[in-house]
Specification:
The chain is of the alpha/beta class. The chain has six helices and five strands, in the order E-H-E-H-E-H-E-H-E-H-H. Strand 4, helix 4 and strand 5 form a beta-alpha-beta unit.
Length: 150
């Protein structure tokens, strides 16, 4: 599985920590930046990873800013991207099981790096359960495409 990861300055250290963890676990990781710790705007880097997810260049995305809120907002602007802001492994599991989320937003100033690894692990290992939940996912995509085509 190919994982894209991006952050702003507030999520930079967590991003570096997660990259090491993900590579150790055998994932292919593409870092969409930033490359150094400096003040940056989250939409610039969140958009790069979200576009790659939208076009199929990557399979999942992990996006980190101070709270995760900004990254989740930018990510959900892209067709086919279903970003979920998760602060617990349970939320990550439900985001995958019921919502087929393909992007995980994390708060670098909110949670510890070790917890971020556990949340990411659950997010990446959990499969979408489909069934009645597929109907909701299809409705979201239909609404998004209608808005995008206007």
């Amino acid at each position: 599985m190919k994982i894209g990861i991006a952050s702003d300055h507030a999520g930079y250290e967590m991003k570096r920590y997660l990259i090491q963890y993900l590579k150790k676990e055998g994932f292919e990781v593409i870092d969409f930046g930033p490359d150094i710790l400096k003040k940056v705007d989250y939409p610039d880097y969140g958009a790069k990873a979200s576009m790659a997810l939208s076009t199929g260049e990557i399979d999942r995305a992990i996006l980190i800013c101070g709270t995760g809120i900004g990254m989740s907002i930018i990510a959900n602007r892209f067709p086919g991207v279903r970003a979920a802001l998760c602060y617990t492994p349970f939320l990550a599991e439900i985001a995958r099981l019921h919502n087929d989320a393909n992007a995980l937003a994390l708060g670098g100033r909110i949670i510890a790096n070790e917890l971020a690894c556990e949340i990411a692990r659950v997010f990446l290992e959990t499969k979408f359960c489909g069934g009645r939940h597929r109907r909701g996912s299809k409705k979201i995509e239909k609404l998004a495409l209608q808005r995008f085509m206007k």
